[in-house]
Structure formats: C-alpha cells, structure tokens
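From the methods appendix. Each design record in this collection lists the tokenized structure first, followed by the designed amino acid sequence. Records were kept in a plain field format so they could be parsed without special tools. The example shown here is representative of the layout used throughout.

RECORD:
FOLD TOKENS (234 positions):
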C-alpha cells in the first residue's frame, strides 16, 4: 500500500488490488456497463441546467436516498457483482458501506470538477473507498481554498489504473478537494466506484444546500463540472 500524506490529507493507494483479489476487471467493467441503469442527470448551475460531463449511477440500501442538486437521485439496487464487491471490502479491509456512486467516463472528454465528498449525510469518520476500472486517469488533489491547515501545500496527483484501490481517509475531505481533469486525447472508457457510509437519519437532506467551496457554487455543482473546470491540457 502506497501512503500519500500531506497536512490534512491521507491517501492509501493499492495498484492492481482487484486483480490481486482474483477479479477479472475487464469482465466486471463490461458487466457494469451492461447491467446498470446509467444516467446523465442535469444539475443547476447559476440557475441553468447542464448535463453532467459523465454518466452516473447511485446504488444504495433502502433509506439512503438523497436529493442531488435539487433533483431526486434515483436509487438502484445492489446487483450481484456490486454486492460481491461490497462483501470483499468488508472481508479484506473491514470497511462497511451502504451506498455507492459510480461514475462512467466514456472517453477522456468526460471529467469531474473540483469538489470534496463532505456531504453532511456522510459518516465523517469513514474513509471514501474508491475502485477504478478501465483506462488510467489522474485524480488530482488540491487544498480547499482558504484552508488554514493545507495552505501553500502543492497539489497532488494519483494515477488511477485498472483495478486500483484508493482509500481517502478522514479528515482529507475537510481540508482537500479532488477532481478528475479531462484528457481530450484519451479515447478509452473508465468507471470509478466510490463506496460510502451514509447516516440513514440524515440521508434525505438536500446536498444542494451545502455551503460553497470557495465559490458561489455548491460542491455538487462543482463536481458536475459547472464551475472552474480543471485544466483540460494539464
Ligand atoms: O473518478 C474518480 O476517480 C473520482 C470520483 C469522485 O471524485 C467521486 O465520486 O466523488
């Protein structure tokens, strides 16, 4: 496990983790493409609707619903392969989760804006567990604007390849943002899965009402790519 630490940031990266656990990552990616009800929701940014620059699917236990930038997020059920992945995380890492956000980047043009996974309904003491499938893309981290702990610290990039595990430990989400820049020359597809632990009692709260992250937009709008997009040529 590669440990990446900066003030307020702790990442644990295990390249090829899924393959080491005996999984066929190509078959898994094809199953997910085929079996999940992929959606391209629109988000409100400064009063205008924009399609997210990627496809998404929200999978969760009953009661772990939330609203996404003013729209009800549709919950999909755990498929057998996703339940097996959840059991693997419990078994190998002793980590619980009750929800999962899948992002499907159809090519290098699809992306994710800067954001922190700091929604109030997320259990703050639990890591965000990320698994990557398909083509390799860099996930970039930067201090949250104005954060006193991480001020002046250089951004960090983690290249996430097929089968990689990345654990984003608390309190990383309080002090750092992350985002996935476009890579226009890349044609291949990538799917990322982030397993989360939601507190069901707060799960109905609207994440579109959260405090802004150094801009007038919410985290959801930023994640959607609606504010200051990442440098596409970097
Ligand atoms: O695609 C990735 O690796 C990042 C996904 C992400 O930032 C998220 O789901 O919040």
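DESIGN:
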């Amino acid at each position: 496990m590669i440990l990446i630490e900066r003030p307020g940031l702790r990442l644990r990266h295990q390249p090829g983790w899924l393959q080491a656990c005996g999984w066929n990552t190509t078959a898994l990616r094809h199953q997910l493409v085929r079996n999940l009800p992929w959606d391209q929701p629109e988000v409100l940014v400064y009063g205008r609707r924009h399609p997210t620059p990627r496809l998404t699917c929200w999978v969760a236990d009953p009661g772990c619903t939330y609203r996404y930038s003013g729209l009800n997020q549709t919950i999909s059920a755990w498929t057998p392969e996703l339940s097996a992945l959840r059991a693997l995380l419990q078994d190998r890492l002793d980590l619980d989760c009750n929800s999962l956000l899948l992002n499907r980047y159809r090519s290098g043009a699809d992306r994710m804006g800067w954001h922190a996974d700091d929604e109030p309904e997320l259990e703050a003491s639990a890591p965000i567990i990320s698994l990557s499938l398909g083509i390799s893309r860099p996930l970039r981290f930067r201090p949250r604007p104005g954060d006193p702990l991480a001020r002046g610290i250089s951004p960090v990039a983690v290249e996430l390849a097929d089968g990689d595990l990345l654990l984003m430990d608390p309190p990383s989400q309080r002090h750092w943002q992350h985002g996935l820049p476009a890579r226009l020359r890349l044609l291949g597809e990538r799917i990322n899965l982030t397993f989360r632990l939601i507190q069901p009692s707060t799960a109905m709260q609207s994440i579109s009402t959260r405090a802004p992250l150094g801009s007038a937009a919410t985290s959801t709008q930023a994640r959607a790519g609606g504010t200051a997009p990442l440098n596409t040529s970097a």
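APPENDIX NOTE: Residues 101, 103, 112, 117, 130, 139, 160, 178, 180, 192, 194 surround 2-oxoglutaric acid (CB under 6 Å).
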